[in-house]
Amino acid sequence: MTQFHIRPSVLHGRLAIPASKSHTLRALVFSLMAHGTSRISHFLPSPDTSAMIQGVRLLGARVEASPTELTIHGTGGKFSPADDVIDCGNSGQVLRFIGALAALSPTYTILTGDDSIRHKRPIQPLIDGLSRLGAFAVSSRGDGFAPIIVKGPLTKTKTSLSGEDSQPVSALLIACSFLPHPIEIEVTHPGEKPWINLTLHWLNKFGIACENHSFERYRLAGNAHVKAFEYTVPGDFSSAAFPIAAALLTHSEITLHPIDMDDPQGDKAIIPLLQQMGAHFVIDPKKQTLTVKKSPPFKGRRIDVNDFVDALPILAVIACFAEGETEIYNAAIARNKESDRIHCIALELKKMGADIEERPDGLRIRPSPLHGAHLETHHDHRLVLALSVAALAATGESTIDGIEAADKTYPTFLADFRAIGAKIECV
Q1: For a Cys staple, 219 with which of 101, 211, 287, 418, CB 3.0–4.6 Å?
Q2: Catalytic residue of the set 114, 165, 310, 380
Q3: Alpha helices, DSSP H only, in 250-322?
């Protein structure tokens, strides 16, 4: 079993953050639907990207990949019948986005994934939304999880679904844009709204009009047409959170790039939050850099994390070093990610001496010095990264199992962090 062995470190230098996973996957989806040949550069090379490439190929797109660019010959929305089961790997986005698009085809499409996708990542909201539009959409075992079987067409003009998880809503917004008639989508309990805004940003990019009524009701005109495009994927704020936190907690100074504060990614909210807690940054919009400066101790606070819920694990680590109590709340959806992130980050940080209390929708954390420990990542990329940061700031050495999961969003993590001084050995 491959492990990280991590000792306390001081960091320094300049670091390029990985490309955005969410932008990479959306770019692939729209290139599938496009008329002509699209090119995507600076994409994230990850298992999720590979799963999405295979998904769009099985729906009829031709994809040519080099280390720096993807070339996609789109279908113009005219899919080929999938001649194999679409394996979504560990990607909820691939399952939801390709699952929704498959309902535009009059033939059956089967989608599955790894153990997490088949047992921990609910798909029932998407099934409900597609079924109410007239599609055949079922969980093959009847339990609300993959494998799922989908068949179009979508003939009705109105649907509804639960929106605690933004991905089924985004999936329907994209797929319904290409229907030959107007559509209305009603959403109960809307959550993760910045990720819906990211999808609306992509619709707007192609001139696809969408009325958004408080994230509870959407109107789409249908008949969307996308021309081939060229796109450079921006840096990922979700991934940037880890070197930012590592520098702050080890009292180090590093510079990150590219950081585009005008990009609509929801996880950029962690930057003003950390500033409010006491972090010092220098942001250069022209150079798209962010420099982490040595900062005074953090101040604990209440954090409604729903708009950037993927940051929960690293915020839990940061809170251990803050003065006063921190409460992270409105994060119940974090229990249905690659792991139950609320339970798993609490479990692992307790091994390091954290004073942390698990709650139904979040965590309560009191300041507590962390020490080295033997840690598990629960097959979750964000736990690999968050626990690595905790180990860099703890006393003594930590051992972390299950580190391969980091490849999902940060495939260069080990090399990048070593280059800025992190004492990490891979054994």
Answers
A1: 211
A2: 310
A3: 270-277, 312-320
Per-residue pLDDT of the chain (427 residues; tens, 9 = 90+): 689 999 999 999 999 999 999 999 999 999 999 999 999 999 999 999 999 999 999 999 999 999 999 999 999 999 999 999 999 999 999 999 999 999 999 999 999 999 999 999 999 999 999 999 999 999 999 999 999 999 999 999 999 999 999 999 999 999 999 999 999 999 999 999 999 999 999 999 999 999 999 999 999 999 999 999 999 999 999 999 999 999 999 999 999 999 999 999 999 999 999 999 999 999 999 999 999 999 888 999 999 999 999 999 999 999 999 999 999 999 999 999 999 999 999 999 999 999 999 999 999 999 999 999 999 999 999 999 999 999 999 999 999 999 999 999 999 999 999 999 999 999 9
Assigned token pair, 65: 């990949």
Which among 16, 5, 15, 14 has a CA at the least distance from the CA of 423? 5
Active site residue 267: no
Is the distance from CB of 388 to CB of 424 less than 8 angstroms? yes
